[in-house]
Predict the structure of Sugar phosphate transporter domain-containing protein.
Amino acid sequence: MAPTSKADRKAALDVTAWMFNVVTSVGIIMVNKALMATHSFSFATTLTGLHFAMTTIMTLLFKWLGYIQPSHLPLSNLIKFVLFANLSIVGMNVSLMWNSVGFYQIAKLCMIPVSCLLEVVFDKIHYSRATKLSIVVVLVGVAICTVTDVSVNAKGLMAAIIAVWSTSLQQYYVHFLQKKYSLGSFNLLGHTAPAQAASLLILGPFLDYWLTNKRVDRFDYNATVVLFIILSCTIAVGTNLSQFICIGRFTAVSFQVIGHMKTILVLILGFFLFGREGLNSHVIFGMILAVLGMIWYGSASSKPGGKERRTHSVPSDKSHKHGLLRAESGEHDDQV
């Protein structure tokens, strides 16, 4: 009875973590789309810096309340993580500017096979044939409903490559650092958010000026724009936290595969909120195929041999020292 109850509780927490991420991710995309498309606030990198500034405030508050326990993350690992994360943000923005929307979507889809490669090489993960085929179905489905015009040039291709690899490494690193140093999602976010906020707020205005030829300090701010910025930053706290929770509980590959449900929801909401001219049988078929692939992936990867580690890596010598800390951090993740 006890194992069943424990399994049921884990399943319920897994679903809650996914729903938390889906709701906050779709919400922030809708808010940012309105902010940038309707109100012409095109300073994406600076806005991301504000997101992490708000997240930093949240982590400081949680530390003060006792939800985040003292923990250690080596400076070298922090620097590598911030480098990957910031390259991901900059790379995606530049890739979108230099490439067509179709090629940008293809680059995003490439993150799944790259994440698989990282897990196979570094974690010795083995995928069954059914798991591999389910991933292919998801990729094909999402490609059908998102990829339209495709054009590429040399500098756009380079930006896309940097964006794909840095994003995949950043997401892999989230899982890796949590496991190696026994860090909960709160703890890891408490280490990384301040560094990302500081670096992006310093570099963001210059990068945005280079991308848009506009200065963030000369934008015509009004009450509505400020309200949308505050709303975006508030939702971003949940998005950042839920990403760390999901990748920590699962893996970067699972986060990418099931995460495409957000792509489907964004498309559906976009059709209803911003016009239905792009909704047709072609797109609907792609959505259905992607969802079926996600269901198949969830079933195939959860079966014995569907996705398993071939060799068990030796835990860090700090795992015993941080054992209690990890247990406490896990409880706080579950409470979220």
User: Anything to note?
Assistant: The chain is about 80% helix and 0% strand. The radius of gyration is 20 Å. The beta strands are 125-127, 307-309.
